[in-house]
Write a structure and sequence with these properties.
This protein has 252 residues and is of the alpha+beta class. Helix content is 15%, strand content 55%. The protein is built from three helices and 14 strands. The protein has a 14-stranded antiparallel beta sheet with strand order 1-2-3-4-5-6-7-8-9-10-11-12-14-13, covered by helices on one side. Strand 5 and strand 6 form a beta hairpin. The mean pLDDT is 84.
C-alpha cells in the first residue's frame, strides 16, 4: 500500500474522482426542489429523467406542462461559467435557448419560447382577473442581465389574447405585443395590440430593487356592454376617448 505524501496524493485523487462522478451522475430529480424554491413553488420539474447535467423533464406551472431537455457544456465550467442548452423535450422547434451564467451576470441567447398565457394569471391578479387565454411567444437574439448594466432586446407577442375578469364580460384583445429593452438596471417596453375589443397603447417599466409600473391607455373599438365600462372606470380614469390605467407595485 502506498504511504506518505505519495499515498495521500493517490487518496486525494481517488476522492476527487468519486466526487466528480457522483456529481456528474446526480439524478435530474434533484433539480425539482431548486426550481420550486426559486419560484416560490409556482414552477416544478416533473417526469425528470437523466442527470442534472444531461436530462429531460416537464416544467409544470398550474395546468401548464412544458416538456424540456437540457445539456450542460463541460468546457465553460473550467472557466467558472455555467452554460446550459435548453430544447424541447419532444423534438419540437420550441422552446429553445442557451443560458450562460458567470460571476455577476446571466446571458440568454437564441431564445425562442412559446407558453400558454395562463402563466400570467398570478401577475394580473391585482386587476381581478379570473383567467387568461392565448399563447405568449418570446424571441431574443441576446439579452444580458447584470445588477446594473443589463443590455439587449426581446420581442414578446401574446396571440389571441383573452382576459376573463371577475364579474365582467371577457375581453378579446387580439395580438398584444411589446419589445423588451434592457438598459442598465431597467427593463421597459411599449405596449400595443392588433384587433380585439379594445385598443391598447402605453408602456411598462421594471426598475431593479424598485418597482413594476404600467401606464396604459385603453379605448373601445366597438360598443361594449355596460359592465365593461364600469370595470374600466373602476380600475382607470377617464381620458379622452378611453381610460388611463396607471399601476405600480414595489419590488421587494
Amino acid at each position: 500500500m502506498a504511504s506518505g505524501p505519495r499515498g495521500f496524493v493517490i487518496f486525494a485523487m481517488l476522492a476527487l474522482a468519486v466526487a466528480i462522478a457522483t456529481a456528474w451522475l446526480a439524478p435530474a430529480a434533484l433539480l425539482d426542489p431548486r426550481i420550486s424554491g426559486a419560484t416560490g413553488g409556482t414552477v416544478r420539474l416533473a417526469e425528470s429523467d437523466g442527470t442534472v447535467w444531461d436530462g429531460r423533464g416537464s416544467l409544470v406551472a398550474g395546468a401548464t406542462r412544458i416538456p424540456i431537455a437540457w445539456h450542460v457544456e463541460c468546457a465553460p465550467l473550467l472557466r467558472g461559467v455555467l452554460r446550459i442548452r435548453l430544447a424541447s423535450g419532444t423534438g419540437a422547434a420550441t422552446p429553445r435557448a442557451t443560458i450562460e451564467a458567470g460571476t455577476g451576470y446571466v446571458t440568454f441567447r437564441q431564445v425562442d419560447v412559446a407558453l400558454p398565457a395562463d402563466v400570467l394569471g398570478a401577475t394580473l391578479s391585482p386587476f381581478a382577473v379570473a383567467s387568461v387565454a392565448g399563447e405568449i411567444s418570446l424571441k431574443s437574439d441576446a439579452i444580458e442581465w447584470t445588477p446594473e448594466s443589463s443590455r439587449g432586446e426581446a420581442r414578446v407577442v401574446w396571440r389571441a389574447a383573452r382576459i376573463d375578469f371577475v364579474g365582467a364580460p371577457p375581453l378579446e384583445l387580439g395580438d398584444v405585443q411589446t419589445r423588451v429593452k434592457a438598459d442598465g438596471s431597467v427593463l421597459s417596453g411599449p405596449v400595443a395590440n392588433d384587433g380585439g375589443d379594445l385598443a391598447l397603447g402605453g408602456e411598462w417599466t421594471i426598475r431593479l430593487h424598485d418597482s413594476v409600473q404600467l401606464a396604459l391607455h385603453v379605448a373601445s373599438r366597438r360598443p361594449g356592454p355596460p359592465e365593461l365600462e364600469r370595470m374600466l372606470s373602476a380600475i382607470g380614469t377617464a381620458d379622452g376617448d378611453g381610460w388611463r390605467i396607471d399601476w405600480r407595485t414595489p419590488l421587494r
